[in-house]
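User: Can you help me understand a structure? I only have the sequence.
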Amino acid sequence: MLVVVNAWADGRIETVMVESDDALIPSREVRVWLPAGYNEGERRYPVVYFHDGQNVFRPGGSFGCWFAEDAAATEIAAGRMREAIIVAVPNNEANGGKARMTEYQPPSDANPRDPPRGNGICDRYAKFLLEKVKPAIDAKYRTLPEKECTAVAGSSMGGLVSLWLGLNTDAFGAVGVFSPAFWTSPNFMKSVMEGTKKDNLRIYMDMGTGEKGNLTGDYWQDALAVREALLGQGYVEGKDFLWNPGEGDEHNEKAWAKRLPVALRFLLAREKAAAR
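Assistant: Let's start by predicting it. Here is the structure, written out as tokens:
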């Protein structure tokens, strides 16, 4: 099912229902932003998938909004990023579930807020994303489905699972890791730091200075430690890795919306457009 829910000069947003066959990963409606030029000609577009999709486009969710459609339209018009399709995949809780953290957490770690739930199931979420959501989007829209034209991004636990997807699948050529909640998954964090460089993967990572030393852990220091480890593995700052600290930024949608334009320029760099 497809319904146009909003349209304007800078693009339009549609919704697509994607069914799941996994009882722990609910079916859900995803929202799809198409750039203004989508209906002009038959060209194909790269795609970036966002987690916590209910917060990505206006009006946003209970925690705020990234206004990603505005950021993308502005960056495209200015020639700073490729024209692209943006897919916002809402989390479990937005679909009547209560297991967002478990859905986004790596299977190597247990849910620290609800231990009886056991270890994370982001491997099952990844299967839904790659075997249900992505095929539905590729079938309905004129996408460039190759790895090098596909990115994934999210914040907090969404940032964590984005990095997991980049390192543990071969579907994504770039990942956006906003304010990653490494404190929830120390085993995964350790594996990242002790791992080796993954070829043909570009990593955007950020953190706000206002996220230092909170009740659940030090987001800032964890992110810095992972950054140093990745650079030590051979990722090169400004080439296949970008660190974008936010001065004074806290752990919220307002901060992620502020840093999103820089991420879009890196995830969907214009220089790659020449080959397409």
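Now, to help you interpret it: The beta strands are 2-8, 11-18, 28-35, 47-50, 85-88, 150-155, 174-178, 202-208, 241-246. The chain has a mean pLDDT of 91. Let me know which part you'd like to focus on.
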